[in-house]
Design brief:
The protein is 73% helix and 0% strand. By secondary structure, the chain is mainly alpha-helical.
């Protein structure tokens, strides 16, 4: 019986989040009301308030769930995946799994990262990528004596680039597979944008 109740709760929360997603795409989060959400989700206000305090609580919980899901993927990555990432800066299987998760939540992420969504969520994602993927796994590869730019600028650049790639994929309708996106992200990150564009450049003179 408890399992059935849990499944009903999960289904209800998904219906509510799907309603919010559609409404953000249509009119923007600021214009959305709880009445809009309950009408679209075909539930009463009492059901909504059993799960969320207001629309802001719904948004915050939904965003947190997505971020926690990505962190869980990184945490669950096999020792071999993480060792490969730490040694070479890349683990294709880990990156593919992250893109698969993003695709699974694609409609919500597209809405929330779009022009009518929540600008602050971009900062949350960048912070998450920096702390949980880059600082924990790439930082050990960085040697201060080898740095060509300050480490903070490097980490900021890479985390922002990760977000930009994800946004482009979502806004473009996810035409590429997660495996193709892992290759694109890896190429841009570890060979650089000019190499990816086929532009030959020499080292900048100081």
């Amino acid at each position: 019986m408890e399992g059935n109740t849990d499944r009903r709760i999960v289904r209800t929360r998904l219906v509510i989040r799907d309603a919010l997603t559609e409404l953000i795409e249509e009119k923007g989060f600021e214009a959305v009301t709880v009445k809009d959400i309950t009408t679209r989700a075909n539930i009463n206000r009492g059901t909504f308030y059993l799960h969320y305090r207001d629309k802001f609580d719904l948004l915050e919980q939904s965003e947190a769930e997505v971020i926690e899901g990505i962190i869980a993927i990184i945490t669950r990555a096999t020792t071999e995946d993480l060792e490969t990432y730490r040694e070479t800066g890349i683990s294709v299987s880990l990156i593919v799994t992250v893109f698969e998760y993003i695709a699974e939540h694609g409609a919500f992420l597209k809405a929330i990262l779009g022009p009518k969504g929540d600008v602050s969520f971009q900062s949350q994602l960048k912070t998450m990528f920096r702390k949980n993927l880059l600082e924990k796994n790439l930082s050990p590869l960085i040697r201060k004596e080898n740095l060509q730019v300050p480490a903070d600028y490097f980490l900021s650049y890479v985390s922002s680039a990760h977000l930009g790639i994800i946004q482009q994929w979502l806004m473009g309708g996810r035409q590429e597979t997660p495996a193709e996106m892992a290759r694109i992200l890896s190429l841009l990150t570890f060979r650089g944008p000019f190499f990816a564009a086929g532009i030959a450049v020499s080292d900048p003179k100081t």
